[in-house]
Amino acid sequence: VLWAALDLWPDLEQAVLIEASAAVRRIGEALATEAMTARIAWLAGDVTIDLAGLKPAELVTCAYVLDEIAPASLPKLIDRLWHLTDDTLLVVEPGTPAGWQRILAVRRHLIEAGAHVLAPCPHEAPCPLAAPDWCHFSRRVARSRLHRLAKDADVPWEDEKFIYVAASRHPAVHPPQARVIAPPKPGSGKVLLKLCEKDGSVDEKLFTKRDGEMFKTARRLDWGDALPE
Known about the structure:
Layout: H1 2-8, E1 14-19, H2 22-32, E2 39-44, E3 57-63, H3 74-83, E4 85-94, H4 97-112, E5 116-119, E6 137-142, H5 145-151, E7 157-168, E8 178-180, E9 185-187, E10 190-197, E11 202-208, H6 213-218, E12 226-227
Parallel strand pairs: 1-2, 3-4
Antiparallel strand pairs: 4-7, 5-7, 6-7, 8-10, 8-12, 9-10, 10-11
Helix pairs in contact: 3-4
């Protein structure tokens, strides 16, 4: 998350990272020593009990954490994270059906707390998907030689599936018309997109050359992209 934030905001001033694993903290500090100028604090702590002394931040993130805590602890943790959020809270989980259910619980809790959902949903209605379907996205990640050895794998890449919710204290300035929630199905002069719509529905829409500029926009979209107004 730190490296991603720096890609978006090179002038990032400061960041506080909380990690229970001493080994992971040491690796993070070593990698960041020569890589960034932001003021970074690396704190040892359990996010379910050690957030009281922190100051609010514009961006608060919680990635791949909720599957490691007891379900009963989730509402209290989300309340703490939201209390620390001056602007936007981002929660990311593995893109499994169980991870999706955890994100749905977070989403409901934040909406009840008055948050505005920024992404991936273009609406704040109940999720229109029903099992066995589930919302998730995917990103292809390169595997290093060590990564391949650790997983006893031959392929030099893997597809990391994830699900997330981004919520803010402020409404989206330019809310999307829809979000692509499955790999696009292109064809000659056409593309079929599975879309989560701003009215809270989900459907598949076929865009063809007859749709003009909308077709040109649609065929450039990938899984996870927003369809603009």
